Amino acid sequence: VDIHWFGANAESLRLLLLGMGPAELRRFVAAGYQQQYNGGRLLGEPEISDDRRHNQLTIRARFALPLLARAVGERWAVAFAPNLGDTLDMPARPGRRFPLALPSYPVTHHYQVDMTWPEGVTIDDEPVSSPWETEHLRLLMTRSVRGNKETRTVEFSAKAGEVPAGEVLQFAADLAEVEARAGGLMMASGPQ
């Protein structure tokens, strides 16, 4: 897994990492994956790459994810679900009199899953590009297939730096729709 931070997000993470020891770094990197994939564990130490020239910070980690692929009838399924909604802080009570600031604007969040299925497995899905857009959000999902290799990408961004107060409830509903659309199953047929 490669996780990239750019610009102000990279600068904030640099400061956070300064105060972390090795054990804290492992917990920080593994927390989301262990929550999403029951029994998931970090393999080895996370690697940090800091490109100050381009103001990009990358953490690379490897995980063991037991039972990642599950039999569904005569097919295999692997769930993926980027947690893109956490990229925007929604207030506990979305009803408000003032605009909602979107501090991550103009960042585009990228999520990519590369799956190499075992030889002899047939990928059931065709390549596709699926854009979806609202007044305040943009989502693009792609799927590409080559032999037994499949790649899914999700790009998510806010279209403005703030949401007018009267549109925050619709924005919250749109954000929930993004979460629902962004995940899914990678499906393949083959010996079980």
Note down, in words, how this protein is organized.
By secondary structure, the protein is α+β, with helices and mostly antiparallel strands. It is built from three helices and 13 strands. It has helices at residues 7-18, 22-36, 168-182; strands at residues 2-6, 41-51, 56-64, 69-72, 75-80, 100-101, 108-116, 122-123, 128-133, 137-146, 149-158, 162-163, 184-189. The strands form four sheets. Strands 4-5-13-8 form a four-stranded antiparallel β-sheet. It has a four-stranded antiparallel β-sheet with strand order 7-11-10-9, covered by helices on one side. A three-stranded antiparallel β-sheet has the order 1-3-2. The longest helix has 15 residues, at 22-36. It is globular.
